[in-house]
Structures are given as C-alpha cells and as structure tokens.
Amino acid sequence: MTGPLHAATPAPAPPGATPPPPAGVPPKPGPAAAPGSARSPAPAPDEALVALLFALADDELIAGHRASEWTGVAPFLEEDVAFSSIAQDEVGHGALLYQLLADLGHGGGDPDALAFGRGPDGFRNAILLEQPNGDWAAEIARHFLYNEYEGVLWPAVAGSPYEPLAAAAARIAREEAYHRAHFRQWVVELGRAGGEARDRLAAALARVLPLAAGLFEPLEHEDRAAHWRGITLAELQAAWRAEVGKVLEQAGLAGAAAGRAGGVAGMQPTAPQMAALTQGGDRDAAVDQRGVDEPGWEEAGPEGLGGRQGRHSPALRELLDEMTSVYRSEPGAEW
C-alpha cells in the first residue's frame, strides 16, 4: 500500500447497482440542510473537527495497511481475497476522510500529502491498529474489536452536524457492516470449535483487549469533538462493550477472554494513566500506574493509550517507512 490514496479508493457503484445495506445500518442521509440549520457545514477552521477527522482517517489508513499485509499469506485463498478487499475498503475510507481535511485547507489541498507526508508524531490513530501482524488469532481478535467499534461509531457519525462528514460516514457504515459480519463469524466459529482454535483465540483476546482502550482515548478539544462525532466517548464505549460482550457470549468466550484487563467490562484507563499522557506527565510513570510491565505487541502507552496524542509504538515508524517510500521518492509525482 505505497501508492497514492486515490489508486486504492473503490470506484463508486453505477446507479441502481448498490445492494441494500445490512440490517442496523442507517440509510444514506438526504441533501444538506440550508445554511444555518443543524446540518450546515462547520465554520472553518474548527480545531475539534480537524482533530476528529485526523483520528478517523488515520485509524482507517493504518488498519487498511496492516490488513493489506495479509495479501498472499492468509491461511487460505478465500481469506486472502477477503483481507485484500477489506484493506482496499479501509484505505478508501481513509482517502475519503483525508479529502475532507484537504477541503478544509490541510495538506495544501492534497490528501496524499496528509496520508504520506507526516511523521509518526503527526498521526492520531489508535495504537491497537499499528501493531505488527502476529498470528492469525491475534489478527482476528484485533479486527473483531475494531470493527465492533466501527459498527457503533459510523452510524453515529452519520448524524454529525457537519454534512460532508455525515455523508461520508453513511457510505462508510454500509461497507463496514460487511467487515463486521465477517469477523463476527470468525470469532463465533473459532470459539465454538473448541480445542486449540478456541484456546488460541481466547488468549489473543486477553492480550488484545487492553490495547483497545486506545480507541476511546480523548481527542484534543474532546467536548467539541463529541459534537461533531455525534456520540460521546462514554456512550461509544458502553455500546461497544455491549456488542463485543454479546458476540463473545455467543462464541462461548465471555469468561475466557477476561485477561489481565478484567475483560470487556473492566477495560477502562485509570485517571493517573490519562493524566500522565494528556497533561505532559512522565510516560514511564503512566506505565507504572498500570501495575504491569509487559507490553502488548510492542511497547506503547499504558494499555494502548497515547495514539490520539501522537505517541506511538516503534511499529508505526516502521510501517510508515514502508508505506510512504514511493511518495517520499518523488513527492510531486502525478499518477
């Protein structure tokens, strides 16, 4: 995934060719309301809206790149194709969101510059998504947790008062519903299979769950960001916990995935952890507050925190070095 974003963006379906959205996915919103209404475009610049757009776009791009790394090495052909398709969708969603930022004047109006022209400290993706690919169980666990988050997030963002974001979110929600169903099926089937399949997935969930806390890390100007998001972080996390819990119960994994974080219900960053990360405190002190010294996949913030503040694991720099190599070789090239 080293070329320009528009090269990976799926082409729009011809009129009448789009299948009906799965159950629970909101319909595409109607035309924008008149200026001054609740759905009128946001005045620019708005720092909270910009922070939200960067976090949303960076999550999608990094998740898509990691998914693309399974192309050719997935356990069997059908899943090879599935991960390639999912990767293309995620990168396309990132491109759509970077274009909104470009329209607000960021990156000199060039979404490729936003995706490929920043260093690690400029990215606001959750640390969960940047970790290097491990075994298949860990990958299923990561994508399951992230897609359950997206399943709650995007329908809410489709009600954003910023019409361009609301329209983009409605499109993204329809596509993400298929990703969500895919990983739910994997979790249920592996959990019900018993034996090594169940044991490996349970162990992976226990390891990955703590890092999922970073999905709910507050953004800069979080109060206003929640306005543009259409849902508060507390509401988002509560709904996510409920959805994850239902699937794990169905898979027979609700107890097995408890792990050191106390399971889904116990996954909550502590106040000292957040203070150390958001108020300029010592990162090592934040890790000490965690009460454990073992990392997730790689050393990052306490329980996966820090990504929304631009603090990342070494894995992100390695990912960006590879992903941006073509762009950096000729930044002004036309494709």
From TrEMBL:
The UniProt annotation puts the region (Disordered) at 1-43, 293-312
Could you give a single Gene Ontology term from the biological process aspect? phenylacetate catabolic process
Q: Which GO terms describe its cellular component?
A: cytosol
Question: Cross-referenced Gene3D superfamilies, in alphabetical order?
Answer: 1.20.1260.10
For this protein, the record's Pfam families field holds: PaaA_PaaC
Compositionally biased region (Low complexity)? 33-43
The record's listing under InterPro entries reads: Aromatic_CoA_ox/epox (IPR052703), Ferritin-like (IPR012347), Ferritin-like_SF (IPR009078), PaaA_PaaC (IPR007814), PaaC (IPR011882)
Q: Where is the composition biased (Pro residues)?
A: 11-32
Q: Which NCBIfam families match?
A: PA_CoA_Oxy3 (TIGR02158)
Name of the protein in its database record: Phenylacetate-CoA oxygenase, PaaI subunit
Organism in which the protein naturally occurs: Thermaerobacter marianensis (strain ATCC 700841 / DSM 12885 / JCM 10246 / 7p75a)
